Amino acid sequence: MSAEPASPPVEDAGQFVRAAFSNASFVTGFVITALIALMALVSFVWTPYDVINLTVANRMQPISAQHWFGTDHFGRDILSLIMMGARNSIAVAFVAVGIGMGIGVPLGCWAAARGGWIDEALMRFNDLVFAFPALLSAIMITAIFGPGAVNAIVAIGIFNIPVFARVARAGAMALWPREYVLAARASGKSATLITIEHILPNIASLLLVQGTIQFALGILAEAGLSYLGLGAQPPMTSWGRMLFDAQTRMMVAPHLAIFPGLAIVVTVLGLNLLGDGLRDVLDPRLRRQR
Amino acid sequence: MTLFLLKRVVIGLITLLVASVVVFSVMEILPGDPARIMLGMNATPEALATLREQMGLNVPLLERYANWVTGMAVGDFGNSYTYRSPVIDLIAERAIVSLPLAVISLALSTMIAIPVGIFAAARRGRMGDTVSMGTAQIGVAIPNFWFALLLIYVFAVWLRLVPAGGFPGWAGGIWPGLKALILPAVALALPQAAILARVTRSAMLEVLGEDYIRTARAKGMPRRTVLWRHALRNAMIPVLTILGLQFAFLLAGTIIIENVFYLPGLGRLLFQAINQRDLIVVEGVVMLLVASVVLVNILVDIAYAMVDPRLRSRA
Amino acid sequence: MSLVEIESLRLSIGNFEILKGVDLHIEQGEVLGLVGESGSGKSMTALTLMRLLPDLARTSGRVSFDGIDILNAPETAMNRLRGDDIGMVFQEPMTALNPVKTIGEQVAEGIRWHRGVNRKDAENSARAMLDRVGLPEAKFPLTRYPHELSGGQRQRVVIAIACALHPKLLVADEPTTALDVVLQAQILQLLRDLVDEQKMGLLLISHDLAVVADMADRVTIMRHGEVMDTGETGRILTEKTHPYTRQLAEASTHVPERTSRFISPPRTPPHKGGVPGAGPALLEIRDVTRDYASRRLSLFSRAEPFRAVSGVSFDLYEGQSMALVGRSGCGKSTLARMILALDRPTSGSIRFGGAELTTKSEAELRPSRRNMQVVFQDPYGSFNPRHKVERLVAEPLHLLESQPSRAERRERVAQALAEVGLSAADMDKYPHEFSGGQRQRLSIARALITRPKLIVADEPVSALDVSIRSQVLDLFADLNQRLSVAYLFITHDLVVARAITDQVMVMHEGEIVERGDTGAVLDAPRSEAGRMLVAASPDLDRALARRRQTAIG
Predict the structure, then answer these.
(1) Which residues of A touch B209 (CB under 8 A)?
(2) Does C306 touch chain A if contact means CB atoms closer than 8 Å?
(3) What ipTM is given for this predicted complex?
(4) Alpha helices of C420-504 — where are they, by DSSP H?
(5) CATH architecture label of C281-292+304-371+456-553
(6) pTM over the 0.90 mark
């Protein structure tokens, strides 16, 4: 009577793939993200032009058939730089999400399983970290320990920890009173075992969605730090770094700023679409609202 | 209600206190000798000794921390090493740029986002919804500093409507000052507005699916009336949460945006202080920014309680 | 002309046909009971009448209310009808009220909207209406918020909203399903009185024949979107000419066959009297109390702990089937959790099979846990949706000293599935592939797999449709006979208690106020709480008897 049949959650991989690839948002996001990742991978073996050897005679060329996106102040091909920069942006964001998930998820699950003062302490710690605007702290950290890609990763990663801890905790807290968890407890299973068998698989979709969001935010944050000169250092390049170089030359060569910026927008857009699509596919409650 | 408020204030103060410990340890303990950091590797021993003296580094660590915290409590943030003036004066001088900037962009973002979000929710699945949410989806992906560069190019370089950067001060009247803040405020506000509009829309949709909306419809009120009278206030609860978080984002955003536009604000002060290794200024500005985040969170909690009676009766 | 006339109403959402040509009518001032199991389309019929259907729903046929063509009326005309001429009461009182508006505002709102009166007059009417539904202003001022009221009180507010403008028709969709039996009786009485006073028509939707038998002048019985049977209540339910009507009526009064209605198996020594004397008890509960910390109301007052269970003592013997009945919030579920060692008592002792549970660590509890399993209420929430049946049913095998091999494990799962009437082939399915009743069988299979001596069942059939419910009760009874497993059956439904338990305990505000043989207690309860429960409990046979009496007298 009152028990309305819950829409069957996505069970197996095949079903998931079918549902995902009939979701327009997911497909668009997936294609964009895959293309960007492919571009980064290709840059390891091939770029349209060599970006190490500078040909100053070619500097600041506008868009042309030879240089689709023009060249920069050292005469390097912008398209090639963007391909190289993708590596850095993706690597920073990826590792930062990894740090956040790797530490945040166990913390959140632990707090949910134990409750009491451990939970309270973790939540207060979260509040504390949230009181520091993430970019502000990242600037502080990179400023003190020196600029560079590694410090940028750590700085962004640290602020992913409470985000994942909070998501994991909220998801786990909602599952602990579930009857199947009670049944597992009545079967003598320990909190760790229950977390592994029952909690994690059922919050995985939440974490995946949050992961794509944080990935997108990580790319934005890396761009911001590099733009301030605190991220990737030459000769390494990144999209933010390219914008940093472009800023003072904006008046004469706007294309220097336009293409790296577009690269960021397209990547973040792709990731967000992917995240939205995943949420639609994985969360039946939201799916019903559409 | 009083208990609720009191609890929030106490938690806020504790957060600040812990934050001060974190800032103090990060800045003064981890990297080694602050005086050396400030002067750089090639400093003479005499210069180091003088600076140590000036900074009170000769006293024990705990005492130094206590002096710093108690000083801040009465508005004494110490003296800047590079500017050779009290940090509090520097902050005051810069705050008159940053504060209006933050307030204008927050207001701008809210005024755009909330109506758009409501509009999209009311026309879910129709043209208006698709177009506005598609735009928002792109807006979320735009880095504000890049957006700022584009704005400068279009409105300052090309159309010459506003200055490309710098700040004339408020002495010459409100208008020139405001004019210099328009582009920075727009650059800060629009990406935030995109996020807020999406949150508003989904909060509205969530609430519109609630049972009490059906109860209200069963009273004979048309959809639109129910949306304004019943859904809006309930949907504001998640929107407030995001507003609070966005304020912190905005503060951090000012650091970058002020650099793009060469605005003499707190963000630029902080950035310059970091580059010049003026730790006392960095500490002071960071604590101030953290304090404003804490304050805004308390305000958000009060707003919660005003919207939601369930929180009022809870301690 | 009838007040409501529905002719060959069809309704579909997408390709799914929900209503397949429904006909019904309601006269002025008449109470029509609309009965059906889940998926019968009874709620959709009600929502069609209000035209509050989901956006994707497509309808055809004819629905007229008071001469107005509902399916084709413009939205503005529907807005004039809703809340004025037709009022509606919903199932879930906890979510039916806007949490950020006072109850006064919410009742007055419809009055102001339809009558255009000023705030003060509307509030006066709202005050009178709230007073009428049993929320007098002295205790429940208009400025109260919904969260300050209990579920029953909230349902009264919803009724006040629906009846504020004296509608010609009140539609009540399972108005008491979310409430306990005592509240249910009160709310039904209120509805009955309001209908009489205001000469309203009432469309009462319910899954419960007993409720409808008490309330309705006429009954319409639906199944799978079609009307099965319709007619005058007494005649329909006594004569039961339609096979589906008979099936429903029999299912709702079903008592499983049990040879011995006492401590059953011959294996245990014979007892005399109500309480078995010989042999050690399987479960011994002594003076168990559980306090919960409650919130402080102000900074300076100390928090008074809330006592959920207070000084409970009882024994349960092997093979015995015991019911624990009481209103919602009486502490019965808390007690069950403590017995299952999922929660610890504040004080008192719980001994199971001679071993004290309250002081043991999780590791030391394992031998006891093997002999004690649980079946929960919700057939949808009882299983991890991502595991297959084999893994789900095998979960308690974790408690064994030596883990069985994979083949052994499959063997035991197959056996447990066979015991509950499912097949071994079901092992490789996911829980969502099963119906509610089948899931409850899975739940029982999981509980049985370690061959426990005790199964604690917390409202195990209350989420099931009546026909399914009777089958699951049969299964419980059968297992009790064959495996001599003891039950502690927690339920608010006295019909269930009567169906399969030997003894019953009545719990009230944390204490056990009455205990005895099931038949004796339920026929002649001695405690006040027991009497209230029994009087409030819907019972089809009694309702029909009352109906005959009034017809004669």
Answers:
(1) 289
(2) no
(3) 0.84
(4) 436-448, 466-483, 494-500
(5) 3-Layer(aba) Sandwich (3.40)
(6) no
